[in-house]
Amino acid sequence: MPDRIPAGDPSPADGILRHAANLLLGRVSIVAERALARIRVEIIHYASPLLAPQDTLESAHTSLEISVGSLASAERFAESGERAWATGHKRAAEGFPLLAVLQAFRIGASVLWDSLVEVVQQESPDRAHLMVYAANDYWRWVERDTNLMREAHRQCTAGLPPDDGRKLLPAFKALLRGHHDPLDLSAATVTLELPLTGRYAVVRLNGPQSARPSDAAVREEVDGILLNWCPYTDGLAVVALLRDRTLEELAAAVPVGPGARGGMSPVVDGLAQLGRARELAELALGTCRSDGELAVIGDRISAGFVLSQPDLAAELRAKVLGPVMALDAAERELLMTTLEVWLDCQGSAGQAGGRLYCHRNTVLNRLRRLERLTGLHLDRPRDLVDLALTLDAYRLYGAGE
To answer: SS3 for 241?
Structure first.
């Protein structure tokens, strides 16, 4: 961003523009709704769920709030320019065309001007005629922010490799949100150059080390798997066309670094299932216990179930582990860790003892104590299921104090 936003604080007759902006401060949501209604009618990129940015509504409200605040206070006059620069850069990174961004900005500016005039006519009719003199200052301010938005978009786009697939991101994000209108799906197959049906999977990554460089390709092929990288505010989503490859091969193609965690969906059939795949990948992600881990939902179904039902998980934890929760933290953790390791060792006390650096009899004694506290028995299948699910609830949600 420029070191300094270009100056030019408007000085309309008798401060009428600033007066109008102050009158409008509490009515920004109405202005945003009017602007969005026009934008969605007049600009195809905002009308289509497959193309529109996911944060369109939030972005419109925030931009207009900043714009009105910038006009209302001389101290905040540079804020709208900073917002315009940030928006231009963000939309370029998302693959959103500059023309559509500028059209939306100008519609918003037009609706805001009409609203400023309207509020002065309603609240200060004796001063409404002064808005004629303020028009030049207002549109000069709009032109400043338009130029900043255009330049930010240009600079960001110039730093990206040509034809890297970034223009595909809006359509991918709509599909990942669960949009599956048949007509839009047909259009998506053409836009994305992907088959409507096929073997797909989604990987969700988050953490400080999950971000890719801004100039990294959005689409690439790795060992026969077509990977489409979609940036999110908290990480990445990867839409993978597997073809004849396996999930194990996908895991090898999407490395998870030490500062990141990942979750992988099962294989789904076609673009219409990407939203569901993303949900399952995020459930798997939620079951990760340490950085560098890629959890596959197929291996974490019980934990995924517990994670998707937090209220039931809390009830189960309270019912089964009530007496265990009364123990001090170290003793409670010792019993729960012993149960976890014993389950991972397929019920072998000897193997569990080896991993816990204690005798098998020590493992058995700890398990018997857990049985006495919970009233459940590990040799009863239903009790064992309850304990295993409760262990997942304990690990995912903590002790619950």
So the answer is: strand
268-269 and 225-232 strand pairing? unpaired
The amino acid present at 166, given as its one-letter code, is R
- Determine the Cα–Cα distance for residues 26 and 6; give it in Å rounded to an integer: 28
Question: CA torsion 267→273→279→285, rounded to 10°?
Answer: 30
DSSP sequence for 174-233: HHHTT---HHHHHHHHHHHT--SSSEEEEEEEESTT-PPPTTS-SEEEETTEEEEEEEET
Element (H, E) at 19: helix 16-24
Computed from CA positions of residues 64, 69, 72, 78, in that sequence, does the dihedral angle turn out positive or negative? negative
134-165 pLDDT, tens digit each: 898 899 999 999 999 999 998 888 876 665 67
Residue position matching structure tokens 């001090």? 328
Angstrom distance (rounded) from CA 14 to CA 6: 23
CA dihedral 54, 55, 60, 65 (to 10 degrees): 180
CA distance 65 to 36: 14
Q: What is the mean pLDDT of residues 235-255?
A: 93
Q: At residue 38, what is the residue type?
A: R
Which is nearest to 169 in space by CA: 103, 98, 238, 264? Answer: 238
For residue 87, is it left (φ>0), alpha (ψ between -120 and 50) or beta? alpha
**Which phi and psi angles does 261 have, rounded to 5°?**
-135, 155
Residue 311 or 126, more confident: 126
Largest CA distance in the chain: 92
More confident residue, 267 or 163: 267
Q: In sequence order, which residues have a C-beta less than 8 Å from that of residue 219 and are 6 or more positions away?
A: 164, 165, 168, 226, 227, 228, 229
